[in-house]
Amino acid sequence: MGKKRKKSEENNILVIVESPAKAKTIEKYLGKGYSVTASMGHLIDLPKSRLAVNIENGFEPDYITVRGKAKILNELVKKAKKSEKVYLASDNDREGEAIAFHLKNAISKKNGKVEIDRITFNEITPVAIREAVSKPGDIDMAKVDAQKARRVLDRLVGYSLSPILWKKVKNGLSAGRVQSVALKLICEREKEVESFIPEEYWTLEAELKKGRSKFRALLVEYRGEKPKIKNNQEVLDIIGALKRYKNFMVKDIKVTEKTFRPRPPFTTSTLQQTAANRLNYTSRRTMRIAQQLYEGVNIGSGRVGLITYMRTDSTRISNVALNAARKFIAENYPGELPEQPQFYRSKKNAQDAHEAIRPTYVEKTPDEIKKYLTLEQYKLYSIIWERFIASQMKPSKTATTTVLFSAGDSLFRAASTVTVEKGYQKILKLLANREKEKRIPQMKVGEEVECVKFHPEQHFTTGPSRYTDATIVKALEENDIGRPSTYAPIISVLLDRYYVRRQNKQLIPTQLGRIISEILSDSFPDLINISFTAEMERKLDEIEEKKIQWSSMIREFYEPFSKQVAHVTSTLESVKGTLDEPTEYSCELCGRPMVKKLGRYGYFLACSGFPECKNTKPIPLADCPRPGCDGKIVERRSRRGRGRGKVFYGCTNYPDCDFVTYDKPTSQKCPKCGQFLVEKTDKQRGTYKACINPDCDYLHTVEIEDQNA
DNA sequence: CAGTGAGCGAGCTTCCGCTTGACTT
To answer: Tell me: the pLDDT tens digits for A487-507?
Structure first.
């Protein structure tokens, strides 16, 4: 008796979620009697070391406990044993259902008696959590099957394609349903960039004067046609013909109003895009900071989670958050509160397991908590906060006045845009529009203004732009390739494997990346393309709707695929040996030319006479600036610290010469003193080049290559 | 934000998607 009462006072209902930060919040909401624990993602998965898909037996996967997760799993099982009831509350999406399923198996294997139910919710609010607990249900096996199909397909693709690359290109390479399509996009764009031929064209502006104000109007019609000015001579001819019109006549004035609705709150994809465009952050950096804000920052009163979950594809927000935003707007910007709340539609195939990314407490304004945040936390929090509040404010309105001027049979156009109603723009600081308003004076139709001067300007048509973190994430998301948790890692894998490099934010394929992409796209055109994943998702939906079986879906894919794999393996010629890039250096041991190779630790120089001559050396980046030293500056890595350590640049004559710097040398020489230039970054100037010589003051801004961090 | 030093051509690699930490190499 006494024992029983004691037990009921303890936490006798176990709730399992995926993320520990979420566990903390939910435990607070559920209160007494509940214990909430995190699984930290998948605990059961395919082993890394082998295929582990039984092709002869209906593609059944051979699951194991994920390396390093045994401790967590055992503890969950132990806790479950002590509980009266277990609620599996992993995310309400396909992967979450699979996590719940595997947990249930593991727990009931060790303890058949305990009652295990599945609960789901799409927002972490007291109401939603309590409601979920009041309506426990079962695991949706169709969803679990869909996840299994996804997992098995990715394993079959990745573990079939990668070995082809090992054999034909280079050991250790990788390919997969997602990364190889991302690489293909980048390579195709590069081809467009290369084949684009810029064309010269000119524009002509007239400087007009009314009273004391001067403004410019653009030539939009010449001799009854849209002007196509190809070169300097043509523009001079036009100016010559127009010179006699000392005055231009106002022919038409039009005012058009435009309404701009605020944008929906952030998803992972739009957060990464906006942070890249407005703050210059890589996807990876954005996610690292967002994770910090989500896990919580000490803002005086203890650690507080400042934003909702950062890996989401939804723009939906909870009612609690909606009301909080409206209350905040009513109190601070009463004129900008719309009568009706704004609702935003998530993208078509959103899994919608979480809310949009929003501040957890709208009353904690960025400026109020700035002193507790790092600068990057402050900036990221600011854009999240601004975007969320703005999304519930009134639209902004602009009025554009367009004036047409005639000069003979030519027409010029000038326009000015003014904001009529600021609306949600009132809240924006970091996200505020950066363009300046252009003003033109008041005029009347029929009025004449003086033409003071002509301004011809040379232009070139600009071709397609290379992908950046922002645009590749956008492209992937639009085509339903990858998930919020993988956008940043996809970019990292392409960089880490030297398929792509990043320069001035642009993603440029390397020689290796192009070769791989070419082989994969040519050999597997049905798989390595932009629509394969969308097709796959459609079939996964059918599995979830119990219209087809997961194993038949896999069989239909695998039969032709495996044939093609065998065919390519036996027929494709190896390109090993063509990968080394020639260089200007020659081997100091045997005189043969040196080639640039990609090794385990990055690029290095090797003698082309290998294996007779085994000479290797790092790639020289510059001459050592120390007087009398004949060493070269090369990239080195510190040994201490996690991973491979931090990159720095030192002299090859170390320890005789101890010259060292953290600034990356460039191939350029300083025009003032002749030593080499290095890349530097700081807050005021951004990234720029400066002379390595501390006694030389040469510096100027230029474009540079970024790191992956 | 302070902080700094090999080797590399291989015998064992690789996927996508969920989640956070992280010694002895």
So the answer is: 999 999 999 999 999 988 999
